[in-house]
Amino acid sequence: MASPFFADFGLMWYLEELKKKEFMKFKELLRQETPQLGLGQIPWGEVKRASREELANLLLRHYEGEQAWNVTFRVFQKLGRKDLCAKAVRESSGNVKIYQAHMREKFCSFLAKESIPMVGEHFNLNVTQEKCKFLELLFEPGKQTRTLCLHGIQGVGKTTFLAKIIVAWSKGFIYQDRFSYIFYFCCKELKRLPAVSLMELIARAWPTASAPVSEIMAHPEKVLFMVDDFEELGSDLREPESELCGDWAEAHPPKLLLSSLLRKKMVPECFLLVTLSPKARQGLEDRLKDPDIRVLTGFNECDMKIFISQIFPDMYRALDAFAVILDNHQIFSLCQLPVLCWMACVALKWEMDQGNDVKLTCQRRTALYTSFLLNLFTPQGAAGPSWQGQAWLQSLCSLAVQGMWTDTLVFGERDLVRNGIGSSDLPALLELRVLLLCQEAEASYRFLHSSVQEFCAALFYLLKSPGHHPHTAVQGTQELLLTYLQKSGEHWVFVGCFLFGLLHERERQKLDAFFGFQLSGEMKWQLYRCLQDLAKITGKLRRETTFLALFYALFEMQEEAFTDQVMDLMSELTFSVFHETDLKVSAYCLKRCSNLKKLSLSAHSVFKNEERGQSSVSSTELLSWHQVCSVLTTNRDLQVLQVKDSTLNEPALLTLCHQLRQPNCLLENLFLNNITFHCEDWALFEVFTHNPNLKYLNLSNTLLGCQEMQSLYSMLSHPACNLEKLLLMNCKLSADDCKVLASILIESRKLRHLNLSCNYLNKGARALCKALCHPACTLELLVLALCKLRAWCWDYLADVLLLSKSLVHLDLSINSLRDEGLQVLCEALRHPVCRLQTLCLMKCSITVGGCRDLASVLTSSQSLRTLFITENSIEDAGMKMLCWALARPSCLLETLGVKDCGLTSACCEDLATVLTSSKTLSMLNLIGNPLGHSGVALLCQGLRHPECALQVLGLNKAEFGEETRALLEAEEERNPDLIIKESW
């Protein structure tokens, strides 16, 4: 049905506004655009002959009223006559009013159906003047950005926040001059759709059958699109630019459509408001155009106090409940989410009604959830639960664990029936609000909050064996724990904590009393055996383990003896802390370690910068940090400590240094990577003059200024300092800093290894080389990879090779050495006085020409044992030259790396000759070269020669076909002393 606008204004009037040439162009574009909108074409002969009035009549006769206007506005846009579209928008304000009325009714209804009525009543529908001012600032005039991202955890109220904006706009309180239309897209609904266009989505939101889409899109700068729960689409916005679409009338899969909209390929002039989870936000802003990122934190203290007063009419009880919440950081963080604040208050009220001490019964997160759910299924005034209540809770636990293993938060009726919840049970469960009816889809349900689902899932493992679950995806206790410690998804946040927390004696007693039987006593030892296995793993699986999650689980359990046993298993730990509670929980576990050998931690934003007026470290925070640092003195096997990606203020740094200086600190290796010191750091360097055990210092990615370099000099020149290895990669060193390092090289008698990679040394390289030539310099290993060394440096480095009495390892990788620079170095390498044993020249732009000089070095040098020329284009011709040298009796090389050097089967016969001739070559890396089956077959012939001395061969079997892999496996079986490494 046409709106009043279309009844009152004729198409002819707008067509009359077109100039003659524009009118002819209009007809041509009309023929192109109608198929795009899925409309039948008007015979071209009639269009071509038509006057303006006749064309208007043709449009209205062939298409429904609003379809005619849609295609007309679309052609106006193509013509560049947005002024006509704007005039139509102004004169058709009736459409805006119709749409606002529809949205007002829809979202007021949504807020009224809030899962917890009291939350909706007191916090959602009350759009105050103060809140309107805040909402206006989200898109205040003059801001460059048109994309606002709101991120917050599940349950914090992101959807409710969007609904409040829509209600305020529809009532005329905000954005009246900014937005003519606001469209809300729920990604939970979108992901169920097939291919769809933006035009269709707008039409779906319109209150009547025919939406004035072209009229709306005539002014995209007056449109706000809200995209809610973006992570539900599973999109990371990484589609190639070429795959994105720009036509809002063209249908695409929802994921691609939203990517095109968010990345401004489609309707770039529009405004966007996107809600997403914190995890989905990571890296997303890099792919959006100038996004404004905001955090939605939920209730603050004031909100909580008001809300609690509504639950507790008695003021004294309300104050007691608020004190419990305020004094417990974990409970406080839960109560920032409105729905969980309601749950916590209900649980506290029940405990108070029963005369219990809430500070004792609800001091842990698990205890709060246990109290809520057990009381929920115990009839008021009854001594215990009914059999129906017991059965309902067991069924909910079965449903919850199925959801965990299938990554499901929304359940259909079939899921409910499978887990023992029939249609007759639903009204009671919905009334109890443990299950909620989803508004996004009919006949679908979810738990009150995902954390309630996680609690029920953990409880399932105490009630039943996973093998008895009707869904095959449900796995055992050990798999649950490992998945919790390694899961990257959003829905495995608390389940591990609940699993451990339910083993607390107080919780076990409550559960035994509720169900009338003793729950499984084997759980604790199953978990311990799993952690035993976890302690033994290495590699990728260990790197993916979130040890902080384990700390939280043990902290929730609050059984010191068990925690001692578990932490004694751990020899290596890596974790990050982000706030004071993380630090407290980590300290609780770390102070119980006794066998730790390696510890790596990050303290991202725990310690405040006092210089900028922020609060200093609290006494509890400092105590926790002291307990973390005390592992340095309580673990006699601890050899490696890494603190990375952290900010340390003075109290934090002094606490760390105090532990490092203790006589019983036996640490040898200290890593301080990407550290910001909000204080003077002299205390750190002074540690090395007091602790004789410290031999290795890695300051890579930590910015070092003049003061730090002077402190380094004082430290390394001190006779009590035993530091042997110093890594200063990517420390933004200057030429002046190199002068300080030069002095260190001359005066230090113990420094043996120095790594200066990823620093632009410039003229500072000259000072370093002069120091390396000094008779007093004892440095043995020098790494200058990616230091942007210039051509004039090679002469200085050649002098170092000739004059240094100690240097045996030199790494010049990723510098533009080229064949010319290599020639200069090779002259020195050939000289009998050169003592260099290892030379690394990875990615140094060496070609076939440089291999001639390298070959001459291999046949003349009496010291060189290792050569790495990985990722240089030496190709088969260059390799043949090297093979000639390697086969000579005078060549003493033991290790050669020619990974990714463009070698083919053409050089493999020469390589096979080397394998049969060389008495010294024991390690050869050929990974990344397309040698082919014939080339590998030739190598295998050489390997079978009785005189072959090779022990390690670098070849990635995955790069070859099945026949070649079989050949290599047969060679390994024939020669047990040969190792074929697939990565090097």
Supply the CATH architecture of one domain.
3-Layer(aba) Sandwich
The parts where pLDDT drops under 50 for at least 5 residues are: 1-9, 120-125, 611-615
The best one-word shape is: globular
Please compute the radius of gyration using only Cα atoms.
36 Å
In percent, how much strand structure appears in the residues? 5-15%
State the helicity in percent bands. 40-55%
What is the SS-derived class? alpha/beta
Biggest β-sheet, characterized? 15 strands, parallel
Q: Which short descriptors sum up this protein?
A:
single chain, 984 residues, alpha/beta, Death Domain, Fas, Rossmann fold, 5-stranded parallel β-sheet, globular
Question: What does it look like?
Answer:
This protein has 984 residues and is of the alpha/beta class. Among the domains are: 4-90, Death Domain, Fas (Orthogonal Bundle); 93-298, 3-Layer(aba) Sandwich (Rossmann fold), CATH 3.40.50; 299-363; 844-984, Ribonuclease Inhibitor (Leucine-rich repeat, LRR (right-handed beta-alpha superhelix)). It is built from 48 helices and 23 strands. The strands form three sheets. It has a 15-stranded parallel beta sheet. Strands 2-3-4-1-5 form a five-stranded parallel beta sheet, sandwiched between helices. It has a three-stranded antiparallel beta sheet with strand order 6-8-7. The protein starts with a helix and ends with a strand. Residues 146-280 form the NACHT domain. InterPro entries: DAPIN, DEATH-like_dom_sf, LRR_dom_sf, NACHT_NTPase, NLRP_HD2, NLRP_innate_immun_reg, NOD1/2_WH, P-loop_NTPase. Pfam families: NACHT, NLRC4_HD2, PYRIN, WHD_NOD2. It comes from Fukomys damarensis (Damaraland mole rat).
